[in-house]
Design brief:
single chain; 154 residues; alpha+beta; two-stranded antiparallel ribbon; Macrolide_Exporter_MacB; MacB-like periplasmic core domain-containing protein
């Protein structure tokens, strides 16, 4: 459990923990769309992954508590969807599933990550970040038969 690992009394040398769950989804904004990896995570993600904002803000503790419909875009996703327009404050529709039966949610863009490029785990610019509890509450296929959420990485 990520929260247990982040307990400073039990693990005093752990500096940060950022659980993540990810899946592929279509993103739509205005007349543009793209398919990308959506990562549900927590506020420590930028610190743990050494990946920081170019502008705006990252997911906050309040976004986690409220299960907010807020998103932070990777640099490449922001360019694809918004070009030279300012994405902060704009809406992005996330669509999961086949087009004829997709589940959709509208997220407000609160930040854009700095360009990072490709790493061993993929293209870091081709991502969208949302609060982990938002993802766990709204995306049904991410839960196991007991209704518990699966975490893919800690």
């Amino acid at each position: 459990n990520a929260y247990a690992i982040n307990d400073p009394e039990r693990f005093p040398y752990v500096e940060g923990v950022a659980p993540q769950v990810d899946f592929e989804a279509r993103l739509i904004a205005g007349g543009e769309n793209t398919t990308t990896t959506v990562i549900g995570t927590t506020p420590d993600y930028p610190y743990v992954r050494d990946f920081y904002l170019a502008k705006g803000q990252f997911i906050s503790d309040d976004d986690i508590t409220r299960k907010g419909l807020v998103a932070v875009l990777g640099h490449g996703v922001a360019q694809t969807l918004f070009g030279d327009s300012e994405p902060i404050g704009k809406s992005v529709r996330l669509a999961v599933g086949p087009p004829s039966m997709s589940i959709t949610f509208n997220f407000r863009v609160i930040g854009v990550m700095e360009p990072k490029g490709a790493t061993a785990t993929g293209d870091e610019d081709d991502l969208m970040f949302i609060p982990l509890p938002t993802m766990q509450a709204r995306i049904p296929f991410l839960r196991n038969p007991q209704g518990l959420s699966n975490v893919f990485q800690i």
